[in-house]
Amino acid sequence: MKLKSFIKSTSDWFLSTPERSLNQAYKSALKIQEIENKHFRGQKVSQNNSDYGTSVINYFETEVQGYLQKISMGLGIFKASRLFLNLSNLQDTENKSGNLAAICDQLKFIDEITAKYKLSEVIQENPTNESIIPYSDLAKSTNIKDEINQSLPNSQKSIFVKSQESENTNSKLESASQKTGVLPRSFMNTLNRIKQEIDPKSGETEDQVLKKYRKSRYRTALSIKFILLLIIVPLLTHQLTKTFFLIPVVEKYFTYHEQIIFINRDLEYEALEELKHYEETLHFRGLIGLGPELKSEQIEEKVKDKATEITESYRNQGIDSIANIFADIFSLITFTIVLANSKTEIEVVKSFLDEILYGLSDPAKAFLIILFTDMFVGFHSPHGWEVILEGVARHFGLPENRDFNFLFIATFPVILDTVLKYWIFRYLNRISPSAVATYKNMNE
After folding, report:
1. Which DSSP helix (H) or strand (E) runs through 339?
2. CB 91 within 8 A of CB 99
3. Nearest-5° angle of CA 84, CA 89, CA 90?
4. pLDDT single digits (tens) 139-151
5. What are phi and psi of 420, to 5 degrees?
6. Which of 107, 159, 171, 373 is the most exposed, having the fewest neighbouring CB atoms within 10 Å of its CB?
7. How far apart are CA 318 and CA 265, in angstroms?
8. Is the pTM of this model over 0.70?
9. Residue among 32, 46, 57 at smallest CA distance from 110
């Protein structure tokens, strides 16, 4: 009875996931509106719409960014959960109760609030990119875009602005690996830094530095949150679906098919070896006096109890392996949905990782490349790949296939090594030739 009530409550919880996640996003949007009405005269949270100082503005901007993240997560869960549930039943429920209009109103309100804020604003301009792009070309393109934007109707201006911001972001991220200058970037960066330090408009320079620092801080926080989100959400999906949905279903199937004990021959062989070892241990301990001498009936009784224990253990292992297959599928679907609904966050993370990787010193880059190559494509890597393949096969309950393992080890590391060498030749050799030279010297 308790099991039925638990399953019913769990089912109700899953069925209410879309409504619950949408309500969370709606409440976060209400919080943003409350901040705007109380402190910014109903306008966007910005320095231009208030008389507060920098510290207060930073506090409110941090709060808004947190609520925007909650809105993005809530809408993502709302969309994902509706894909897993029975949409026809949901549609009937919505039409009967009138919730469809309420859902549309909530989504409309959320869109109105989030339209004022763009997560792409936290992307900081990379100094190495600024020295590559000529200022005159940038000014010309900016003037042309402003003229086009002024000539568009109001309903199309926001679309144009968003598209231009996306193009600017992509150009910034691609310029580091696709554009080269006549002079080294480090030399140009030094000249730009000296120019900023001796600029008579030092006040404006300080404001720009503070603004870049705030953007960098927001970008770092957003990148870390998004990376954690990519890790935590699939893991939670895996554990929740496996524990509350998949394992009970598979256990019920095994209950109706009691003749199924082992899902592959390898598990059956391991179970027989374990039972044989247990029986031989009983005989051995009785012969050397470490245990009481048992009669054949007593030994048979103990072996029978051990066989029952082994059967239950390997049956549970098979149930767990089958549940892992479907739980991993659900996790992969969730991971894909999160990526599909987080294009802006992906651009931010790419910019964040580019700055970290390309900001490393040349010996550090060479060290990481050598560490990666020796670990995955080096002399001792076949042993590591063999352990990984065996672990994956056991995770999914598959029998070990030595031929497949040897074929994989003979081909995949070679492909990986080829891709790495192409990346070094195609990109790293242009971006950081000194790092390539250091890598060759350290590798020799």
Report:
1. helix 296-340
2. no
3. 70
4. 444 444 444 444 4
5. -65, -45
6. 159
7. 12
8. no
9. 32
